[in-house]
Write a structure and sequence with these properties.
single chain; 535 residues; alpha/beta; 5-stranded mixed beta sheet; 14 helices
């Protein structure tokens, strides 16, 4: 693998479109595969630089949100093209900083570019503003004023890059793309595990900002380690919302900072999920072996470093369950250990597996050996009564480990489901035309309350970037279960409604004028239409 030279990546933050030397010390990236530091050293920003980046974002907001949908769509397209123009330099640096294979990085680059273009298409379609018009009713008693509303951006957004997706949930990932689409400047805190990758993508964004003639404050990259930078960023008065993907402790810490501000702001944090998989009786009776193999493949995908990893399996005791266990352990035994994304993640995984493996209520079905910087599969088993009695067994282990909860019957499975925390996903494995369908029907209301996405006969790993996707869920899966961080609905996190009462046509935004020049679908007196008529 070719090393990225210090002359290519500078180690600077990017504020106001310019590289800046941080005044808060320095750090280096770590190659988790070779277990060595990478050049160059990266400079840590200080509070003055954080303040300047946020102030520039605040100053840029009104100009940026006043751009047309087509202008912002063109900007998102330009970001995508600039990322692609980085070529192998980006791919190779990301491989060095994460230990991920080329195919995974190239696939993630495609996902990143694809979601930028998806938001561009959303802007060009136009109805994201949710325009609503209730025409005046002067003859009514009492008269009704002319009322028109739309959604606008909330203001500058602080985005925290994730550790496990160096591109798709990072500098130009879904949080940034949706904030830009909403007309919100972004102040980005790079993840310290892949600062070189972050700098390359950030420079691509800065080039797109300049190419499109936008204010330089539309985007900034902040670099550094520790919690102080993030806390100062969230506390800054210019910041109006936060996008975060990471640990439960990190997300709740930012929520606390945001809530203690003189003006509290929303934090959209994706945090912790064990993604329960329900194996219903007839599904196990008919295809336990195949389900076991598919489960094993999902568990070890990406060394288990996905937020939708199947960390919990629920099944009813019996022959089908034993067949599932045999097939899953056999398939897992055929897998190989692999490098985890960072030393911190690897260390946390080892501690979690050790704690679960030594728990007095838990039986170890499989625990494969691996080197210190690697992860390898682990599978454990616990009776449902012990799982319900021990809250520590509900905690996420980030990596290729899963806990099988053995239930006495379907009613016992329902009881366990009720006690689960909020989840990103819940999967139902069932046989068509059997009692499984009725069991699933009984489970559905609970799962709808507990999870953001419910799957049939599959596993949550693999999150499609699409209009209908929901990548969210009740706490602690996310800080706000009403939102999604993937798909076009992610834009609504960074929007708020404004109503215009009796404003003259000349002052109304184009989408609310009578002539509706772009012919965008609107709600007229509650019914969809493009003109001022109802349909």
């Amino acid at each position: 693998m070719t090393s990225t030279s210090a002359s290519t990546i500078t180690g600077h933050a990017l504020i106001g479109g310019q590289p800046e030397l941080g005044a808060g010390g320095s750090f280096k990236a770590w190659n988790p595969s070779l277990r060595e530091h990478l050049e160059p050293a990266f400079h840590m920003v200080d509070r003055d630089q954080i303040d300047r980046a946020c102030s520039l974002a605040g100053a840029a907001f009104d100009t940026f949100r006043a751009t047309s949908d087509e202008q912002r769509a063109g900007f998102l397209d330009a970001v995508a093209e600039q990322i692609l123009a980085l070529g192998d330099e980006l791919v190779e640096r990301a491989m060095q900083e994460t230990g991920l294979p080329r195919g995974r990085i190239e696939g993630e680059r495609g996902r990143t570019v694809g979601q930028l273009r998806l938001f561009a298409s959303l802007l060009r379609e136009g109805s994201w503003q949710d325009p609503r018009i209730d025409p005046a009713l002067p003859q009514r008693t009492p008269p009704r004023a002319d009322l028109r509303s739309r959604l606008i951006g909330v203001g500058p957004v602080a985005v925290f890059a994730a550790s496990n997706f160096p591109l798709a949930f990072s500098v130009a990932g879904g949080d940034t793309a949706s904030a830009f689409a909403a007309g919100c400047p972004v102040v980005l805190k790079a993840h310290s595990a892949h600062p070189g990758t972050s700098e390359l993508v950030a420079r691509a964004v800065v080039r797109a900002v300049a190419q499109c003639g936008l204010p330089a404050g539309v985007f900034a990259l902040l670099t550094g380690t520790g919690n102080g930078i993030g806390q100062a960023l969230v506390a800054h008065s210019a910041i109006q919302a936060v996008g975060f993907t990471g640990s439960r402790s990190g997300g709740t810490a930012l929520m606390a900072v945001a809530g203690q501000r003189p003006q509290p702001i929303p934090v959209y944090a994706e945090m912790s999920s064990i993604n329960p998989v329900f194996l219903l009786p007839q599904a196990l009776a008919s295809r336990a072996e195949q389900i076991g193999k598919d489960f094993a493949a999902s568990l070890v995908l990406g060394v288990g470093q996905f937020c939708t990893n199947p960390g919990l399996v629920l099944a009813i005791e019996g022959e089908g369950l034993e067949q599932f266990c045999a097939a899953a352990t056999a398939a897992l035994n055929e897998t190989q250990p692999a490098t985890m994304l960072s030393a911190g993640i690897a260390s946390s995984y080892r501690r979690g597996v050790e704690a679960l493996g030594t728990h007095t209520s838990v039986t170890t079905l499989l625990r494969l050996e691996h080197e210190e910087h690697q992860g390898h599969a682990a599978l454990f088993r616990v009776p449902s009564s012990d799982f319900l009695a021990r809250q520590e067994l509900h905690e996420e282990i980030f990596g290729p480990a899963s806990l099988l909860v053995v239930c006495r019957d379907v009613e016992d499975m329902y009881a366990v489901a009720e006690r689960l925390e909020g989840q990103l996903t819940a999967a139902l494995h069932m046989a068509d035309g059997s009692g499984d369908v009725e069991a699933a029907r009984t489970l559905l209301p609970t799962l709808e309350r507990k999870a953001g996405r419910i799957l049939a006969n599959g596993f949550g790993t693999g999150v499609e970037v699409a209009h209908a996707m929901v990548h969210g869920g009740p706490f602690p899966a996310t800080a706000d279960g009403r939102s999604t961080s993937v798909g076009t609905a992610a834009i609504y996190r960074f929007l708020r409604p404004v109503c215009y009462q009796n404003l003259p046509q000349s002052l109304l935004p184009a989408v609310l004028r009578d002539d509706n020049p772009r012919e965008i679908w609107r709600r007229i007196d509650g019914a969809l239409g493009k003109g001022m008529e109802r349909i």
